Amino acid sequence: MSSETDTTERARPEPIQAVPVRHPGRWVAVAVIGVLVAMFVHLLVTNKAFNWAFMVDEMFRPPIMEGLRGTLALTVLAMVIGVSLGVVVAIMRLSENPILRGVSWAYTWFFRAVPRLVLAILFGNLGILWARIEFGLPFDRQIGALFGVDDFEARLFGFSALEILTGFVAGMLALGLSEAAYMAEIVRAGIQSVDEGQTEAAQALGLSRTQILRRIVLPQAMRVIIPPTGNETIAMLKDTSLVAFVPVSTELFFQLKAVGNRTFQVFPMYVAACLWYLLLTSVLLVGQYYLERHFSKGFGKSAQAKIRLRGITAEAGGSASEAGR
């Protein structure tokens, strides 16, 4: 009977011999990248064209620091104009008024189509159109001629175009107005990402459209708006180098290029420009990370898990209090 039991009993399977999957491509990639990195480091250390001592000595001189301050000021002012005007254009694009929608569409179409370098040079030459920029009644001379009044002027005040449209102002306007077109699309996408039920609930509570936009929609849309806005700020920091062709002398790249041209050490100054922009961009990336983390509270897997855990805790507490009663 034992033999019959042995024959009928199922044999246990042998343990699986697990063989780890080999990835030879990874080791090949590591070897190739290691060789390329070694070649790059060797180039930086041995090639005398970099002239590191001259570069480090020149990239912190007072003219360079003045250009750095100008670049930062230009970035901040252009982004303030871009964000403020972009919100207005986005609201116009979402308006039920067809005229406002058409104007906002034409604005975004024009400023997204024309390159920023072309805009900067164009704004730098606007002084050709007007000798003076004056404020007052439009078409005052034409109105006076219509009523037979010669030399009729209804202008309150004015400025010389050359005094107002300096290189810095022209570059700031070109970059800011161009940025507003991109920010309008970003803000519009952020507003449309908010569920319409939020607006309907706010309307049921009697809030006005301005209150709904300011207190309900925009705070929720910031989670979608902040990441691309951070990217646009970094792009704006780099695009400030375009105003060197306006020209704007109080700008980082202009000053670095001027030093290179004056000392015939052009390449080291270009490398110094890369280092400065790398440093500034890294600082902005850190700020963008903390802003995104702040405005993304309540979203994501970890936040949803915390919300569910709070709900379970509340339910458990409620049931325990009911049992105590």
From TrEMBL:
<dbReference type="InterPro" id="IPR043429">
    <property type="entry name" value="ArtM/GltK/GlnP/TcyL/YhdX-like"/>
</dbReference>
<dbReference type="InterPro" id="IPR035906">
    <property type="entry name" value="MetI-like_sf"/>
</dbReference>
<feature type="transmembrane region" description="Helical">
    <location>
        <begin position="269"/>
        <end position="291"/>
    </location>
</feature>
<feature type="transmembrane region" description="Helical">
    <location>
        <begin position="27"/>
        <end position="50"/>
    </location>
</feature>
<dbReference type="Pfam" id="PF00528">
    <property type="entry name" value="BPD_transp_1"/>
</dbReference>
<keyword id="KW-1133">Transmembrane helix</keyword>
<feature type="transmembrane region" description="Helical">
    <location>
        <begin position="113"/>
        <end position="133"/>
    </location>
</feature>
<keyword id="KW-0812">Transmembrane</keyword>
<dbReference type="GO" id="GO:0043190">
    <property type="term" value="C:ATP-binding cassette (ABC) transporter complex"/>
</dbReference>
<feature type="domain" description="ABC transmembrane type-1">
    <location>
        <begin position="68"/>
        <end position="288"/>
    </location>
</feature>
<feature type="transmembrane region" description="Helical">
    <location>
        <begin position="71"/>
        <end position="93"/>
    </location>
</feature>
<dbReference type="GO" id="GO:0006865">
    <property type="term" value="P:amino acid transport"/>
</dbReference>
<keyword id="KW-0472">Membrane</keyword>
<keyword id="KW-0029">Amino-acid transport</keyword>
<comment type="similarity">
    <text>Belongs to the binding-protein-dependent transport system permease family.</text>
</comment>
<dbReference type="InterPro" id="IPR000515">
    <property type="entry name" value="MetI-like"/>
</dbReference>
<feature type="transmembrane region" description="Helical">
    <location>
        <begin position="154"/>
        <end position="175"/>
    </location>
</feature>
<protein>
    <submittedName>
        <fullName>Glutamine transport system permease pro tein GlnP</fullName>
    </submittedName>
</protein>
<keyword id="KW-1003">Cell membrane</keyword>
<keyword id="KW-0813">Transport</keyword>
<dbReference type="GO" id="GO:0022857">
    <property type="term" value="F:transmembrane transporter activity"/>
</dbReference>
<dbReference type="InterPro" id="IPR010065">
    <property type="entry name" value="AA_ABC_transptr_permease_3TM"/>
</dbReference>
